[in-house]
Design brief:
single chain, 406 residues, alpha/beta, TIM Barrel, 2 domains, 8-stranded parallel sheet, 3-stranded antiparallel sheet
Length: 406
Amino acid sequence: MFRIISKKDGKRTGEIKTRKGVLKTPFFMPDATRAFVKSLGNDDLKKSGVEVLCVNAYHLYLQPGLEIIKKAGGIHKFMNWDGPVISDSGGYQIFSLIHKNPEMGKITDDEVIFRSPLDGKKHILTPEKSIQIQFDLGVDMMVCLDDPPPNYYPKEKIKKAVERTLNWAERCKTEYEKQIKERKISEKERPLLFGVIQGGEHLDLRKYCAEDLVKIGFNGYGFGARHVDKDGNFLEKVLRYTADLIPEEALRFALGVGTPEDIVKCASYGWDMFDCVIPTREGRHGRLFIWKKNPSLPEMLRIPKQAGLRCGGVLPFEKGEKSSPFKKGGLEGDFYKTININNGIYRSDFKPVDKNCGCELCQNYTRAYLRHLFSAKEPLAMRLASIHNLYFYLKLMELLQGRASD
């Protein structure tokens, strides 16, 4: 299902065969958490270069509910999306909900008991139920339920989370095989299954978790919990080390990563898959990514050692969607910068947002017009800015894949 095409200095390119088509690696997935990417339609996504989406099983289980999606014929038909879809188990969101407010639930070795943030209704989620939900969604790739503790937890608590993650991974794999048999799914139609490597900032725990997950056997392995420390510093050593623990023939999923610098760094360590809300969320707030010059791979790979540190602190469960690393002074790397189009200096700026960009926004409208749309609170502003940022991210991935000219 996955083959490596080339490898050089840790970075690798390849391709995955899914039930809904072939994907070149490394690739980026916008988060269509609740079965939509905010403010964008499917045509917008495809024109931006998007081939695969990441949905969240926890959120879809709560709203609109599995019965609605099953009646629609599965997540692809419900969204009218004909490309591959991966589902995150939602463990991260559930655990963060409980870590943030213990009154919202309880974690045991057998299950997670939590209250819906929508209506307060009590729910019980087991590893088995998580897999059943993802099969009901009909996704092409799915992720095991895991226990992702905050990195600042004491080592003994993180070790306990690793043990629970391993136990649940084994239960997920058993349920996965059971569902394959009961649903009469052929070998060719099997969704890919990912285990998640936990261990916080502790290399020995990451090693222990990875080795035991490999014994269970998965199509791919994800980097679990935060990819930054409590101060927002990028965990370069941990991410590089963890990638090396994963077998060559398996996919490597850097969950929740991230900013352009972090994606480039992780790709250089051998990570294949990325998902994040950053491009569309920042776009909806008027913050846009701009190439400093005509984009090229050599420029991207010359990343300052400390680049991207501020970006790392973006995690929904700790700071909320309204918090952004781009608010105070923006973010700038070797190969790009960000601007806030809401600033007054763009009121009469009649240049395109980025002269090196071929997106709908840059080809048809000026900075002044986009600022006007945001000032007037016109929804078109969020759509155009989100399209632009996604176009930037997908161009970045094309360069990493070697599909775009340097």
